[in-house]
């Protein structure tokens, strides 16, 4: 193995508590792409929005990383956070904050938040997030055009209001996301269809929710979430982009019985889409009865989801919904989660998975017959925590996104290449095993190591209704390693480092399987607190200067670094 020399060139400390900064431009963009309602935690600037209340130091306890699912990176890699020892004061007494950082590739991160109203019954907050890049990235494949500029900019404003009445808590959240990006994928020497024109995505998100305070009689909760969205162009630059609305509503009731941890309940949900044009709308209705019993450390939730779906046909299914945990000792437990059901794969959900999904047409919904995740969390050895896990998932109509070489448009004398990702469908069986170990036997150093091995089996994989021979689980890694470390030098200085490896990755291009380069992503950072209100930071990403694609034909940035400040007021 090659020797790695890392030089950490700047300092920063976040006031009050330490939060791991994003590890690369790719990771930073994912924080916003993953969900269209980023929070302050997603910005990785502070632990929570400041609150005017008396600080209370929590008793030290250990939490484990819950990231044990599949890795299907969109433009960027989703790195899990390690378990950590929580001994810091978990909030700030200041009302607002401003954070900004800038680096090469024109990478910029910014966040602003302020608590406008804070009293016993009412809470009104405002936040604004910015994330952008505008730099040339080199293609991995041998093509005439070696580089292309990858442009991306997200701006999102959010207003949140919470009212606590005697019997219930009432919340209203309103946000708007304005996103611009270009389809920078490899054209493989074809003329570009979208010619690096900036696509626009706008999402207006409104959510109203209520939840009763816990009682021994009857508890209730519910919400209605409305999202309106639009894009600028569709299959061609002069064609109208997809527009539409999503409505998601839920109502739930539970009745405690016996002890405080035992409940009998039911949740009902309705989700539907309304697209413009000739796209098929989607409708899903579910009822989920359940019973829970046990203690906070040992409990069982036994239930099922009764599902009714319409999307190019009508389907009714019943899926298990079970959660189990058994505390073997005071610090160790066994757990199992058994679930299943539909993945809607609506247009907005696919835009969260990757902005580079084709901007015309929708992706078929998939159905998981079973989704099992089980393991053991062990904390009996002083200074060490272990998580051994495994699972199995069987899914019908699973989608895999690829850059399809056959998807071209007649453009006069030559073919114009659609530099977008298209779905390949297949029935997937996915098993995984793995483990994580975390240690802080030397208090200033907290280290976690996580390994995961994936096993895939596919059947009836089709592209444009034509079956693919020797299919692979495209863009899903066969083996993953994640190592993360945080080192507290002084009360004012903390250093971080993390390494992520993903191997055995495949894609499909021009009628054949294409093996993708391994991901070797090494990152480091430093945080330094100047005073109670002001701190500075620096982070360096892809220190090994590795060349790899996130999606086939969509390369990651090379070595990049950024620095900035956080100001609390």
TrEMBL record:
Places the protein is found: Cell outer membrane
Look up keyword Signal and say if it applies: yes
Tagged with keyword Membrane = yes
GO cellular component, as recorded: cell outer membrane
InterPro entries reported in the protein's UniProt record: Beta-barrel_TonB_sf
Signal peptide positions on this chain: 1-19
Q: Which UniProt keywords apply?
A: Cell outer membrane, Membrane, Receptor, Signal
Q: What is this protein called?
A: TonB dependent receptor
């Amino acid at each position: 193995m090659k020797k790695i020399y890392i030089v950490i060139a700047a300092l920063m400390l976040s006031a009050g508590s330490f939060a791991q900064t994003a590890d690369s431009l790719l990771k930073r963009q994912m924080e916003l792409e993953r969900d269209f309602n980023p929070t302050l935690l997603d910005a990785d600037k502070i632990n929570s929005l400041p609150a005017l209340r008396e600080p209370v130091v929590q008793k030290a306890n250990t939490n484990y990383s819950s990231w044990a699912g599949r890795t299907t990176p969109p433009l960027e890699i989703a790195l899990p956070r390690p378990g950590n020892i929580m001994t810091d004061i978990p909030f700030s007494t200041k009302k607002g904050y401003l954070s900004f950082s800038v680096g090469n590739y024109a990478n910029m991160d910014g966040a602003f938040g302020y608590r406008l109203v804070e009293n016993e019954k009412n809470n009104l907050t405002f936040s604004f997030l910015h994330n952008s890049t505008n730099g040339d990235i080199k293609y991995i494949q041998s093509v005439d055009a070696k580089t292309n500029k990858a442009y991306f900019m997200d701006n999102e404003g959010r207003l949140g209001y919470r009212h606590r009445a005697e019997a219930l808590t009432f919340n209203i959240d309103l946000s708007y996301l304005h996103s611009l990006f270009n389809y920078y994928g490899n054209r493989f020497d074809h003329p570009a269809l979208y010619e690096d024109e900036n696509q626009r995505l706008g999402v207006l998100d409104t959510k109203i929710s209520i939840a009763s305070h816990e009682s021994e009689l009857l508890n209730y909760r519910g919400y209605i979430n409305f999202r309106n969205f639009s894009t600028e162009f569709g299959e061609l630059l002069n064609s109208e982009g997809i527009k539409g609305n999503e409505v998601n509503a839920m109502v739930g009731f539970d009745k405690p019985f016996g002890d405080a941890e035992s409940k009998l309940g039911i949740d009902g949900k309705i989700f539907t889409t309304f697209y413009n044009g000739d796209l098929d709308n989607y409708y899903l209705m579910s009822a989920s009865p359940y019973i829970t019993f046990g203690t906070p450390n040992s409990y069982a939730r036994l239930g099922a989801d009764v599902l009714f779906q319409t999307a190019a046909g009508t389907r009714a299914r019943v899926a298990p919904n079970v959660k189990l945990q058994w505390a073997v000792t005071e610090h160790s437990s066994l757990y199992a989660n058994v679930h299943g059901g539909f993945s809607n794969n609506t247009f907005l959900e696919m835009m969260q998975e990757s902005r580079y999904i084709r901007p015309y047409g929708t992706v078929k919904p998939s159905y998981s017959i079973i989704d099992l995740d089980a393991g053991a969390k062990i904390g009996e050895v002083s200074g060490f925590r272990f998580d051994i896990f495994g699972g199995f998932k069987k899914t019908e109509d699973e989608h895999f996104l690829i850059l399809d070489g056959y998807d071209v448009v007649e453009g006069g004398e030559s073919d114009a290449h659609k530099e977008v990702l298209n779905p390949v469908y297949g029935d997937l069986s996915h098993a995984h095993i793995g483990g994580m170990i975390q240690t802080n036997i030397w208090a200033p150093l907290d280290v976690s190591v996580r390994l995961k091995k994936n096993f895939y089996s596919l059947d009836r994989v089709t592209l444009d209704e034509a079956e693919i021979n020797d299919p692979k689980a495209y863009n899903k890694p066969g083996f993953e390693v994640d190592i993360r470390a945080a080192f507290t030098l002084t009360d004012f200085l903390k250093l971080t480092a993390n390494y992520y490896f993903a191997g055995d990755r495949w894609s499909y291009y021009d009628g054949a399987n294409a093996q993708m380069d391994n991901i070797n992503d090494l990152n480091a950072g430093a945080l330094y607190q100047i005073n109670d209100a002001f701190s500075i930071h620096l982070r360096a990403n892809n220190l090994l200067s590795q060349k790899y694609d996130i999606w086939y034909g969509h390369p990651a940035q090379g070595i990049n670094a950024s620095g900035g400040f956080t100001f609390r007021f």
